[in-house]
């Protein structure tokens, strides 16, 4: 048996939106522990580069938009054709195209946010359930946000979608038990391209509310997701795990 075989878990995980940022860190952590991964993203070139970094024998890229039902089906089909199984799903692709009060938010934009952040996650979950998980079991982790747990003057439509994603987690956890566990992680600010506007040029100020003294790194989220997908989390389902460097410890008064 080669070293490669010895560390193989045999599990296959579909991670959406994983050419960079949190999704890529999750894929990297899963490959490091011996999973094979199927990753998605809109930019095919960036996705191919991510596959190359992860190792072409361990990773497969399927380019497409998360909300596109044909893409959701294709990603799961390619996973089944290539690896013969799809044990785990990480719904990570997400969008936040607008900053500002929700009372002023364009309804078309609000619908787009909901479509990408919530309906896409349901679509991917239906596909992995039908193709593999219903018969064989597995686990799902949805990438939520602390924005879904409180009100915000800047990211209201996004927060609304992440709150809905947490409820989708409850629905799926209930319907898919006992074979499939479904959980959410809810990070605070993690240093990625997505969140750059929240900290770039003012990182010291942005970090002030974090008792652990720093903003999140993609690897902080990846570690928690890898745990929730593992047998160590075998009795955890329907939960939202807040990953916030202690941000919510601050008393309101
Ligand atoms: N960073 C934070 O502070 C933070 C905090 C809480 C929660 N989150 C959540 O974490 C998730 C990942 O965010 P991130 O910070 O890692 O963002 P990121 O660095 O911008 O990476 C996003 C990834 O998703 C892909 N993607 C974006 N929109 C997509 C779409 N519509 N369909 C398919 N793929 C798409 C991107 O590739 P392409 O552009 O090529 O499609 C990229 O690979 C999101 O759900 C976000 O809401 C982030």
UniProtKB/TrEMBL annotation:
Protein's UniProt keywords contain Oxidoreductase: yes
Recorded family membership: Belongs to the short-chain dehydrogenases/reductases (SDR) family.
Entry's Gene Ontology molecular function annotations: oxidoreductase activity
InterPro entries: NAD(P)-bd_dom_sf, Sc_DH/Rdtase_CS, SDR_fam
PROSITE patterns in the record: ADH_SHORT
Family matches, as NCBIfam families: PRK07231.1
Keywords assigned by UniProt, alphabetized: Oxidoreductase
Top-rank lineage group of the source organism: Bacteria
Native source organism of the sequence: Streptomyces mobaraensis (Streptoverticillium mobaraense)
Stated name of the protein: SDR family oxidoreductase
Tagged with keyword Oxidoreductase: yes
Gene3D superfamilies membership: NAD(P)-binding Rossmann-like Domain (3.40.50.720)
